[in-house]
Amino acid sequence: MPELPEVETVRLGLAKSIVGQVFKVPRLLHPRGLNPKSEVPVAALAGAQISSVHRRGKFLWIQTNEQLALVAHLGMSGQFRISQPEAHIHKHLRVLFPLSDFHLGFIDQRTFGWVSVGQAHGGQVPDLVSHIALDPFDPNFAPKEVVKRIRASNREIKKILLDQAIISGIGNIYADESLWLAQINPQTIASALSPKKVERLLSLATQVMASALAVGGTSFDELYVNVNGESGYFERSLNVYGREGQPCPRCSGPISRIAFANRSTHYCFSCQK
Ligand SMILES: [Zn+2]
Asked: Where residue 153 sits, what CATH number does that domain have?
């Protein structure tokens, strides 16, 4: 599933290529491509010019000069791809956005992703994104506040890292990697961790996501690619995620995989306490 570094890679690619383009008439090709909360059909974007591309956590939005924003969540396998109008139609294309000079497609094999169109003035966060907490890349992210909120919880630390209302952008891969770097067992109750430990965890989570962003993200299941169809390279730098049974790079103990919070959790039993 695309997490902050992957979604930011997509945002950078979109910002580079689509700003200034004008929407022709978008076409919804699969009903699940559109979020039921969309205020208007995708065709309402026709004639609007793209002014900027934004992200918070794993949510993207494309702002237009018509005070309409196209919001998107990539879900498990959503992709934005740029193509020439004469190119063949991808079999998992869910929404087609013909633009002035080329086509933008929303492709999604597993159909957990969606787009939505609604009112938003420039500089305003669209309604569908406003309940999402700031992510660590946001200039207004306040680590001390987030540390307090995390430590106020009696839930396990991994569950909190995944809670997009407390801190956004972190998913299963970067939660496991951050906890390994911080040497914290994923099932530790958050309130039992010292403020210093939680602060260090947030800083390591930010660092690992920045390193992943620098190489275009992690294309673990081959469903994530950037707007030009290229994979990211961070998979080769993962320390625990997807490495069950292999030696821990720090202590050589075996990496365990357990089912936890409805997902796979990878960690080292020996050095994550
Ligand atoms: Zn270890």
From this structure: 1.10.8.50
Q: Which one-letter DSSP state was computed for residue 110?
A: S
Going residue by residue through the chain (273 aa), what tens digit of pLDDT does each one get?
A: 899 999 999 999 999 999 999 999 999 999 999 999 999 999 999 999 999 999 999 999 999 999 999 999 999 999 999 999 999 999 999 999 999 999 999 999 999 999 999 999 888 999 999 999 999 999 999 999 999 999 999 999 999 999 999 999 999 999 999 999 999 999 999 999 999 999 999 999 999 999 999 999 998 777 888 999 999 999 999 999 999 999 999 999 999 999 987 889 999 999 999
Instruction: Give the separation between CA 248 and CA 188, rounded to whole angstroms.
Output: 19
- Residues annotated as catalytic (active site), given as ranges: 2-3, 58, 263
Distance 252 CA to ligand 1 centre (A): 6
Burial class of residue 28 (count of CB atoms within 10 Å of its CB; 0-12, 13-18, 19+): middle
The residues placing their C-beta within 5 Å of ligand 1, an ion, are 248, 250-251, 253, 268, 270-271
Query: Residue 220 belongs to what domain range?
Result: 143-268
Which amino acid makes up residue 60?
L
Answer yes or no: do 56 and 173 share one domain.
Answer: no
Structure-token pair, residue 140? 């207004």
The answer to whether residue 123 sits within a structural domain is yes
Q: Distance from the CA of 213 to the center of ligand 1, in angstroms? A: 25
SS3 34: strand
Reported pTM = 0.97
**How far apart are the C-alpha atoms of 166 and 241, rounded to whole Å?**
23
C-alpha distance across the termini of the chain, in Å = 27
